[in-house]
Amino acid sequence: MVLPREDLLKGVENRELIARVIDQAEHAIKTWEVVISDFLSPPEMMEAQASLQRLTDIHCMAWGGYAQAERQRLAIARPEIPLDNTQVALAAIEIAGNFLFDPATHRDFLGAVLGTGIVREKVGDIIVLGERGAQAIVVPELVEFLSMSLTQVRSVPVKTRLIPFEELRIREPKKKEMTTVEASVRLDAIASAGFGMSRSKMADMISGGDVRVNWKDVTSASHQVKTGDLIAIRGKGRVEVGEIAVTKKDRYRVQLTRFV
């Protein structure tokens, strides 16, 4: 069976990646196998799922190792084949070292992993553990290679080993519910209220490319937000836009949930 590729790719930003996912869907249909994608970022996953949901011959399920995982792999199969988390091949590793005197960030650990020659698509979430190192989720076939090749992050010697998923130190996000009343539902107004910073500073962050809405970069402060939108700033968490109601004075009462 040949899928309507060009139709499925209309309006897609990550065209090359989604084309590979469509190839995998075709393979799943032909072989009756469960096919697993590489790790996808949230915007890539949104596009992949939106494309595949238009097809009646397959279904899919995303999993990244834990409930709040940002980067996930997509399991694709015919609808007659049930899908569950155990079919998504993942492995957890520990990158252990003493970072007390040379602290490392998420970017440092990711850079060290990619510095071994691995491509980003083979690496899921990285959980930084402060002075003790980090944990990462990767495709299983790379565990042995990383155990031998990942020996240093910044100036710190590290030991990399496979660990059970039960040892992942997942921090449950804290939630804060709030309500704001604004003259408009512009992104700079709603985001400044949600993240508790001045509107001018938020406008600078938006124009600087630091703010994403529904995992897509938005650089216009006047972008109109709506119920269900997710506003994210790296390092500062996320804000989900809830119910929006118009007051008697024609202002907007907006329910917000902040995750940190």
User: Order of helices and strands, N to C?
Assistant: HHEHEEEHEEHEEEEHHEEEEE
- Major sheet: arrangement of strands: 10-15-14-13-11-12
Q: What structural category do the secondary elements indicate? A: alpha+beta
Main CATH class of the largest domain: Alpha Beta
Strand content: 25-35%
Q: Which sheet architecture does the biggest sheet show?
A: 6 strands, antiparallel
The CATH topology of the largest domain: Structural Genomics Hypothetical 15.5 Kd Protein In mrcA-pckA Intergenic Region, Chain A
Based on the coordinates given, report the CATH architecture of the largest domain: Roll
Per DSSP E runs of 2 or more residues, the count of β-strands stands at: 15
How many whole angstroms does the radius of gyration measure? 21 Å
Which quaternary structure do these chains form?
Answer: single chain
Shape: globular
Number of helices: 7
Provide the low-confidence segments as ranges: none
CATH homologous superfamily annotation of the largest domain: RNA-binding S4 domain
What is the helix content?
Answer: 25-40%
The CA-CA distance between the termini, in Å, is 45 Å
